[in-house]
Amino acid sequence: MSGPAGAIGAVERFLDLEVKDVLEIAMRSPAGGGSEWDAFLGHLGLVPAAKDARTSRVKALELAKGALPGEVRMALHVISGMTSTQLDRLEQRWPIVLDESTPMARRVRALRSRLVGMVERDGGTYDKKVQPATGGGGGGHMGSIFANVRATKGMRPWANIEWKYSLTIQCPGCGAPQELATQFTCAFCTGDLLGRRDLFEEYSA
């Protein structure tokens, strides 16, 4: 028996490896995903989107490479849940890991903290790598900043700003993001994106 310290190390290695595999396999997949990505989803107990659904999303998102961002987030969501379950079992078996005076407790707390926001954090990093960039070039020099200040001196603050708002809808059942603005049925668990969370308890159980 390796004891609680060894068990914590196993959870740390599991999380590191699974997240690494998600991002690397997704990145090297053809646009929309491929056989290797599908096999990885199967390893997590997930069912890939249908071929025609993938094709339409690749076109809508203008993907040149990589698995669908929604599927990447679903994979990260499952890994986060699996890690949390492992930590729950570890804490039940070895209550000493809850003792804040021990290094083990700090390691467990660090793992819990990492899981908070992991899906959107790592999913957002993936998005930036596979989705086409928007906006103009990057001439972010200090000279242009000061030139802009001089040109706008005396203007009323915020007078010429056009405010734009964006909204990301997430499935209340599985956490997957809405990928198409006109789509209100989750492509992964088929739930209602505007429905109640308690309708999907059996999916996330």
Outline:
With 205 residues, the chain is mainly alpha-helical. The protein is 54% helix and 0% strand.
Tell me about this structure.
The chain is mainly α and 205 residues long. The protein has two domains: 1-131, Methane Monooxygenase Hydroxylase, Chain G, domain 1 (Up-down Bundle); 165-205, no CATH class. It is 54% helix and 0% strand. The radius of gyration is 22 Å and the shape is elongated. It starts with a helix and ends with a helix. Mean pLDDT is 79; it is low at 136-149 and 196-205.
Please specify the SSE layout and strand pairing.
Elements: H1 3-27, H2 35-43, H3 51-61, H4 69-93, H5 103-115, H6 118-130, H7 142-151, H8 201-204
Name of the CATH first level of the largest domain? Mainly Alpha
How would you name the oligomeric state of the polypeptide chains in this document?
single chain
Gap between N and C termini? 30 Å
What is the CATH-assigned architecture of the largest domain?
Up-down Bundle
Number of helices: 8
List keywords for this structure.
205 residues, mainly alpha, Methane Monooxygenase Hydroxylase, Chain G, domain 1, 0% strand, disordered C terminus
